[in-house]
Structures are given as structure tokens and as C-alpha cells.
Amino acid sequence: MQPVLNVEDVRQAEQALVGEGVSLAELMRRAGAAAAQQVQRMGDVSHVLVLAGFGNNGGDGWVCAEVLHRKGVSATVVTPLQAGEIKSDLARMVAASAIASGVDVVVAPPRDRLEQMLDASDVVVDAMLGTGFHGEPKAPFDIWIDALNHSSAQVVSVDVPSGLSAQTGHAPAQSVLADVTVTMLCLKPGLLADDGRDLCGEIIVAPLAEQTERVVVEADPVAWRAEAADYLEVLAPPTLAVDKYTRGSVLVVGGSVRYAGAPIMAARAAARAGAGYVMLAVPEPVVGVAQSHLLEIPVLGMPADPQTGAFSADAREPIQKVAQRCSAVVVGPGMTVNASTMSVVSGLLQCDVPLVIDADALNCIARWTSNRLDSFPELLRRSAPVVLTPHRRELGRLVGLQDTPPDSLTAAMEAARRIVWADGGSEVCVVAKGTATACVGVEAALLPKPGPVALATAGSGDVLSGIMGACLAKSAGQLENDSLPLLCSLACEIHGQAGQIAARKYGSRGVMATDIIDAVGLATDAVEEQASLPDDGPQAEAE
Fold first, then answer.
1. What does the DSSP assignment read for 459-486?
2. Closest CA to 513 of 447, 469, 466
3. Does the global pTM surpass 0.90?
4. What is the pLDDT of residues 249-269, one digit of tens each?
5. CA dist 524 → 155, 417, 468, 506, 543 (Å)
6. Does residue 140 have a cis bond before it (omega within 30 degrees)?
7. From CA 349, how far away is CA 383, in angstroms rounded?
8. CA triplet 147, 152, 154: central angle to 5 degrees?
């Protein structure tokens, strides 16, 4: 797993390295060298332009230029100030060294001159604004960024694309669109979500020191990026000695006359994800529709409210009885929110069976707790695993942020932690869905590889809940609770892989949720195969 640190904690890690005997000057030298090494990997590079800022990020750029110059690559630094006017002592020192070595320097060029230099460059190194930046770029960097984005040169960003917040992933104004981002020491949350996914390109982590892994872990990562091999911990060993019962059984509970399709998709996804036996419980008026779509899956009609077409309160007890015979239960898709469906959700929470709470079941809990689930931890306190799968708006409703839902990966993780920390048990995991999803447990948050844009379609969340139910069912009785976030991350990876397979067939914007379902089986095999392969490649995140 790769650690992810908040920006303020990166500074703590830097100071820890200084305490280990690695000076800030040496870290800057190694950071610039790492950027230069990446530039040389970009192909046949004869001329490089470095756009350097005022601070230490700019210092990394000056070092990069000097390293490339000494290796015979023509390098020019564009700077808004004369080298002697740079306020950062370190940056001023390395700038003087680069100039003394023969690196060409251009100070504050007009835009037309800058555009000419950009057009003449094979690679541009973006070392303008570093991880401490927030807000909107000011002159001259706003002009430089616009000119750079209109050029045809390949771009290597140092630590973070200029204009992007490395903490939040927000880029409120124009930001550098990088081909590669070489980020120092460790991943930062803003690189992995929201605007960061568009701007960073391939992400390369440069550790800079042999002590880095230890000091980064000691700095208390806000999350961990899961890698393929990590999933071996929660994957059952392959065997031919199986039948439909040993592969686990899933009950999907949901639906209404208005939203009949959601539970059907969740049930089909559970079956495609490898559950040996899947059942679907829906209100009685929905049975015919569900049966017409599900030849292999038994459909159980439950008492319904004739006015709403949703479950009535009388459905609570028969649903509980069926649930107790299953390996896992998924509740919520399409069930609507009213007193009766709230009763059904309450009844399932009382069953000692692994439970996935999705969609309207989450909204039932939000209404039940007056939007403060974190103030009612006893609702989720149980011996069997419980997984909540809210998107950001649903998550906001669960913790009193319905008017200002989380707007970043870090904000979503903070909201999710309010739920799991209130409960305090390792049997709870909140899967905070978004442009990057976080599987948040009481001990750690795991970040699966983000899925493609094809997943941004109606019904995609229902598919994920079905996959999640199948993963819980297949591991029933064998899963350690502290591995629950990793199992949830595995389900998210399968979902994302299925989206990629579907996109290759239907196009990134042509995928529907049912297309994702049809690819789930192939995706499951692919993720399991990737987990079993040795990882000999560079430490990188390909987005």
C-alpha cells in the first residue's frame, strides 16, 4: 500500500528527515534530480524549459535544470525574478549554482516571447507553485499557465500541477495540465481526486531518502492507496471444491413501483460478482417486473403499501426471516423513504448478518437520526460487518452536512470518520463514493484505484452495492473485521474494472449500468489475476 499524507503532515515528514540527517538542501537536490530523471524518460529530449516560481518548488526546478544541463540537455529557466531577489534562501542558493553551471535564464518574458520558447521546447518542467499553494494563481503565473496549456510540449509537474490544491484536489482557476507529476516523498489527497484526476497525468512518487517510508508512516497517513497485491489478503485461495452454497448467498432488499430497476440491477451484479445464490425481496406489485428480468434469481414478494407501492411495515418480519438464512444482505436500492421502509431497515440492522446499506436505506437512517448518525452509534453497533455506501450528498445528510456536503476527498473522509469513530468498532466501514472513493474504517482509510468516467451513470451505485454484497457473502465467516475496508476496496476495484471493460465496448459516455453488470465477471477475474502477479514496476499511479 502507498501512504497518502495531508499537506501539513508532509512538512512534518520533511522535518523528520532533517532529524535523520537529510538536510532540506539535500532533499531539494534529490527532488530536482528526480524531476530531471523523469524528463529524460520522456523520449528524445534536446531542449527543456523550466518555469520556476519564487519558493522551494521553484528551487526544485532550478536543480532540475542544472542536472539536465550537466547531462548535455539544453535547459532554460524562466523566472519572475532575478536569482538574487528570490526570498527563499535554499531556492536562491540553487539558482546561483545553476547559473554558475551555465544554465540559461530568462527573467519575466512577455507572453509572446514565452510562447516562442514553449514552442521550441520538447519538455516543460512546471515548478511554479508547490504543495503549499491554495486559491487562484496570480500574475505572472496565471499567464504562464495559460500559455503552457496552449503549447504542444510535454509537461512534467514538480510535486503538484501549478494551480491545483494538493490537499483538496480543487483548481478554482486555470491550472497546469501535466503529462506526468513527480510528487515528493508520498502521495497527497488532492492529486487523487476531483480536478487532480484531470490535471496530474501519471503520478510518480519520488521517495528521496531511504528513511522516507518509515517517517511517512510515523506522520500518520490520512489514507492508504491500495495496490493490486494487497487484495490477496481478502481473496479466497482458488479451488475447484465449490458449489453454489459455499460461494455464499446474497439477499437484496429494495424496490418500489416507482423504482423497480434499482434492486434488479443490484441482484444481477451480486450474481455476476460470484455469489452462488442470490435472492431478491421486493414489494408484491414489483414481483412481475423483477421476474421478467431475472430468470436465475428467485424473487420474493413482500407486503406492500397500496398507496406508495413500497414495502409496508408488515414486510419487516418476513424479510428478517429470509435475511437470517443468508451470507450477506444488501438493502436500499429503489426502496424510497417512509416510516415503513425505515422499519424494514431497522429490522435488518438487528439481524446478525453482514449488511450493505445503500441508497434509500441510507436516507432512511438519516431521517431516523435527524441527520446525525454520528450521535447514534448504537444503531450500527453489531457483531456482523456493516458497510455504508453513501455518495457525498448522502454522506452529508448522515452527519448534519446536508446543506454543505463534503466537496473533496479529505472532507468526505472526515465526515465518514465521524460515523466510524462514533461507533468505535472495526465491524463498520463507510465507503465514501466520489471522483475518488475512500473505504473508511476505524483504523484506516483505503483508496481503491478510481474507476473511469463511464461509472458516472444512473444505476452504477446499485451495481456497486451488489458487488459489495457478493464480496461479503463469499468471505462470510472468514473475514477479520479489521480487513473490512480492504474487502470494500476490492469491490470498488472490481466495479471500476467492469466500467473500463464496458467503456471499451460502448464508449466512455455510452455505458449504462446494465453494461457494467455484464462485465463484472470478467472484471473480477482480472482483478484477482492482477493481485497474483508480481509487481516489478515503478512506484506510480496511472490515472
1. THHHHHHHHHHHHHHHTTTT--GGGHHH
2. 466
3. yes
4. 999 999 999 999 999 999 999
5. 35, 29, 12, 19, 20
6. yes
7. 11
8. 100
